[in-house]
C-alpha cells in the first residue's frame, strides 16, 4: 500500500505541474481540495456522525480553523507554488524534513529527548536533502590521460 501510495503521489506531482502552469497554483489547489473532499468525506462519514460535537470547546474549533487555514490551505498553496517554480522532484525532497520538524516540536513542546538513532536519522536526512539539491557541475572537457 505504501509503495502504491508513493507511486501515485509521484505521478500526481508530475501530472499537476502543467495544470499549475496553465491555470495557476490557487486553482489547482482548490480543485484538488474539492476532489479530495468528495472522496474522503464519505470514507469518514461514520466517524463524523459518531463524534460528540457538543463536547468540543472553543479551543478545539480554533485549532480546527488553524489547521484548515494554515496547514491545509496555505501549506498546499506554498507546496504547489514550489512545484510550479522548482519542479516536482526538487519540491518532494522537502517532505523528508517533516519528521525532523515533528521531532523538534516534540523536544520543544513535550520535552522529549531524541534518541541517538533519531539524531543519526536527522543527519542522514539533512545530508540527503542537501546532496539532492546540488546542481551538477559543467561537463568535464578534457583529455583522458
Description:
The protein is mainly α and 145 residues long. It is 77% helix and 0% strand. Helix 1 (2-23) packs across helix 3 (58-86).
Question: Mind sketching the topology for me?
Answer:
Layout: H1 2-23, H2 25-50, H3 58-86, H4 88-92, H5 98-110, H6 116-132
Helix pairs in contact: 1-2, 1-3, 2-3
Secondary structure class reads mainly alpha
Main sheet summary: none
Helix and strand pattern: HHHHHH
Strand content: under 5%
Q: How many whole angstroms does the radius of gyration measure?
A: 20 Å
Instruction: Based on Cα principal axes, name the global outline.
Output: globular
Q: Would you report the number of β strands?
A: 0
Query: Which spans of ≥5 residues are poorly predicted at pLDDT below 50?
Result: none
C-alpha end-to-end distance: 50 Å
Total helix count?
Answer: 6
The averaged pLDDT comes out at: 83
What fraction, in percent, of the residue positions are helical? over 70%
Please give a quick description of this structure.
This protein has 145 residues and is an all-alpha fold. Helices cover 77% and strands 0% of the residues.
What labels describe this entry?
145 residues
Amino acid at each position: 500500500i505504501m509503495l502504491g501510495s508513493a507511486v501515485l503521489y509521484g505521478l500526481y506531482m508530475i501530472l499537476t505541474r502543467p495544470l499549475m502552469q496553465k491555470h495557476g497554483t490557487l486553482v489547482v489547489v482548490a480543485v484538488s481540495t474539492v476532489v479530495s473532499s468528495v472522496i474522503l468525506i464519505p470514507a469518514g462519514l461514520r466517524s463524523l456522525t459518531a463524534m460528540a460535537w457538543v463536547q468540543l470547546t472553543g479551543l478545539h474549533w480554533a485549532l480546527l480553523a488553524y489547521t484548515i487555514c494554515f496547514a491545509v490551505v496555505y501549506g498546499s498553496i506554498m507546496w504547489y507554488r514550489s512545484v510550479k517554480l522548482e519542479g516536482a522532484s526538487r519540491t518532494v525532497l522537502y517532505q523528508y524534513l517533516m519528521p525532523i520538524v515533528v521531532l523538534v516540536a516534540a523536544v520543544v513542546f513535550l520535552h522529549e529527548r531524541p534518541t541517538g538513532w533519531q539524531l543519526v536519522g536527522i543527519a542522514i536526512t539533512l545530508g540527503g536533502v542537501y546532496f539532492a539539491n546540488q546542481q551538477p557541475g559543467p561537463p568535464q572537457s578534457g583529455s583522458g590521460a
